[in-house]
Amino acid sequence: MSKLVIVGTVAFDAIETPFGKTDKILGGAATFIGLAASQFDVDATIVSIVGGDFPQDYLNLLSDKNIDVSGIEFVKNGKTFFWSGKYHTDMNSRDTLTTELNVLADFNPIVPKFYRDAEIVMLGNLHPLTQISVLDQMDNTPKLVVLDTMNFWMDSAIEELHQVLKRVDVITINDDEARQLTGEFSLVVAARKIQDMGPKYVVIKKGEHGALLFHGEKVFFAPALPLEEVFDPTGAGDTFAGGFVGYIAKTEDTSFENLKNAVIYGSTLASFCVEKFGTERMQDLSKEELNTRLLQFKHLTQFEIELT
Amino acid sequence: MSKLVIVGTVAFDAIETPFGKTDKILGGAATFIGLAASQFDVDATIVSIVGGDFPQDYLNLLSDKNIDVSGIEFVKNGKTFFWSGKYHTDMNSRDTLTTELNVLADFNPIVPKFYRDAEIVMLGNLHPLTQISVLDQMDNTPKLVVLDTMNFWMDSAIEELHQVLKRVDVITINDDEARQLTGEFSLVVAARKIQDMGPKYVVIKKGEHGALLFHGEKVFFAPALPLEEVFDPTGAGDTFAGGFVGYIAKTEDTSFENLKNAVIYGSTLASFCVEKFGTERMQDLSKEELNTRLLQFKHLTQFEIELT
Description:
The structure is a homodimer. By secondary structure, the first copy, chain A, is α/β, with parallel strands linked by helices. The first copy, chain A, contains eleven helices and 15 strands.
């Protein structure tokens, strides 16, 4: 079992979908990543920041999953990062209604001492310099660094993004962002160009159309599970990443074959995340449910053909 | 080996893509279906109609693949159906520039006597009444009837479409059309509703995002092979259908497990079709190339996870 450092937002979200809307609920990339990774009983810490308005109950919720929260800075007089958004009918696109950085504006991540020798580091979507700061605090070069990012940093901090990319083993990125980062329409070509930027493994997330894992000339694909209803896509990408790193931390195996399995676990966990608002579905997810759905994934994708 | 009846257009296409453009070249749904099915050395006939302008060379090309062309009516004083279109940069959308029905306007399909006891019938995209006419000519109810259709018939002949759907075992349809036919956004729900209309197997084609096979509560997914470059998508859907029915005709097995394999073969063949203009790539495709790509498909999708 490898130690796992997760850096990212712990936040409030307010979400509106065609199915309903929420008040401020628990959200944030690191929250979703941590909850997904906790399915693998890993020794994980979350490095983040919250304000005085952040309920102890939410921290307890993470601690109860054996996630170390000592790396979550508590700014008594500050307010927690808040995002609100509204999804369109197709659930693939959304409008951001509010982004209040609040305490996140001055976030200076501190990795708890006990976790500075962690083998796996998950850099959730944040300013690339914040991500670099976490890597700089590690005692050694971690066995595997996984980075998530988004188009916002390509627009506003592309040089810093390239700096951190050089120190990353795996990037998870969505299809449009992969195209933006490389100027290539073909995802095959884009993935090759991104590997030249640093990460030797490139995971391209296509939302309801699944995810691709590229490594050299190898490629693996995991579909998203076809669902009757996507209730709330918020956090699905982070849940995917959390399942991905959680499985690797548990198995301590960074081979391509094992990363394929990690992609399947990530997709499986993401399929739960979207079934309810926010983190609700992930909070009470059982191992039995996870295993049942993994079997569905097998049936969805596995076939037996004898070549003729 | 089952006999296979293919009804559909044999046509001229003129295609423009970001990579270039063609003059009038060989096209048509039945042409693509036939070429794909011929990979399985099936005993197939094409039921169609062409004009006096249709080159004997094109008919020879089909005959050389052991496709019976006696069901292709030759109207000496007529002109062959002609379609021209231009693809947008993303290759997923296109504008139709020209549709000249010509001899197709009076198409009255005649199934050759030798093929009226065929076990497999592939109804390519045509007016639903034309599709029904083919079924009416069969000696017995075929073992498997596969239908392809499009939004045009939903707009212009929905009642006739529902008539033919009642007599069909498998429908292949794209995602937008499945949504239009059912009024459901979720493909899972749409597939269920389509099964209630007749076909017990529903194949939903998602272009570059792969294809789903639904049957009762079962679902199977085949991705499209990630390609460096899609050169010309024309005929990919028909090639998929041709590979699908060709494999079933060869194996004579209509179980869900075997239909999964048929979907994989359809996807594999479609991945070749898009590599060159029109039918060019399909004309000289070898069994070795097909097998090599099937292996790529296995590597793309197959994984080994032990449940924990």
